[in-house]
Amino acid sequence: MPEPEVFEALRASAEEVLETMFFCCLAGDDAKPESGGAENRAPAPLLSSRLSFRGAPSGVFEVGVSVPAARGLAANFLGAEEPEVSGKQVADVVCELANVLCGSVLSRFRTASVFDLSPPDLTPALDCPEASRCSFDIAGGMLTIALRFEEGA
Amino acid sequence: MPFNALIVDDSPAMRVFVRRVLELSGFASGACLEASDGEQALALLKRQWVDVILTDINMPVMDGEEFVRRLDRDDALKAIPVLVVSTDRSDNRVQRMLQLGVKGYIKKPFFPETLRDKLEDVLGATDART
Fold it and tell me: I want to staple B31 with a disulfide (CB 3.0 to 4.6 A). Which of A56, B4, B80, B96 is the partner?
């Protein structure tokens, strides 16, 4: 899959998903594509979620959200004030964000056929080598999305 | 007349989101039941009648497709209208669920108004709103 096409899908999906269900928007038009990984970015506390998908194509999808931004997204999604939102709820919302983003991204590739998403898991860090990766400024911090297709996709 | 709803989704966050859309849409709220998979939902339906079911597809234990099949095989439950709320946007899946008799298929992400409009179609705009 050509990287520009993947980056555009990541950006468009981030914009769509945040606006419709998380009542938030990307801050500016400055997506930061990162080929090969985000290891060289300044480390920041992240809440990360990963899921895999099977079909044509198969692969791995990851989302990382800086902690303050994740709290804001969770409050918006749940219709609550930030101090009322528990750590577990924030984690649940990040997992749901990963789930919805993954479905949205895959639907943008014409070749994608029926796919099966695994339940999203919370992970200690973004750890998807050789993924196409894109970061976006959002209120409270940063959203990073990574997508890797399995070989042959 | 208050309407009872059943939300079936393995994501607790998503259940809260859907419940909130129901509340903000002005539907007369009776009981709003929640289940995390189809099997749990069927157990709840043995104890309480609902007027509408909103279900995800991709769930552990019993997925949404099997859940809808089970509803259709039960004479007491087959009349309950079902709306699917799912990440799966594939045409194959949508067509299969519609053939199984669901009343609507809402693809995530969606604006809350989309869910409200589908609920109005199913429940009847004048009867269901407070």
Answer: B4
CATH value at residue A93: 3.40.1550.10
Count of domains observed in chain A:
1
Which of chain B's residues have a Cβ under 8 Å away from the Cβ of A93? 13
pLDDT at A42: 46
State chain A's maximal CA–CA distance in angstroms.
46
Q: Which of B17, B24, B89 has the CB atom closest to A77's CB atom? A: B17
Nearest Cα of chain A lies from the Cα of B113 at a distance, in angstroms, of 10
State whether ipTM is beyond 0.95: no
Pair B34, B64: CB distance under 8 Å: no
**Tokens describing residue B98:** 């519609």
A20, A84, B16, B75 from A80: Cα distances, Å: 17, 6, 10, 40
Q: What is the mean pLDDT of residues A96-121?
A: 85
Domain extent at residue A114: 3-24+45-149
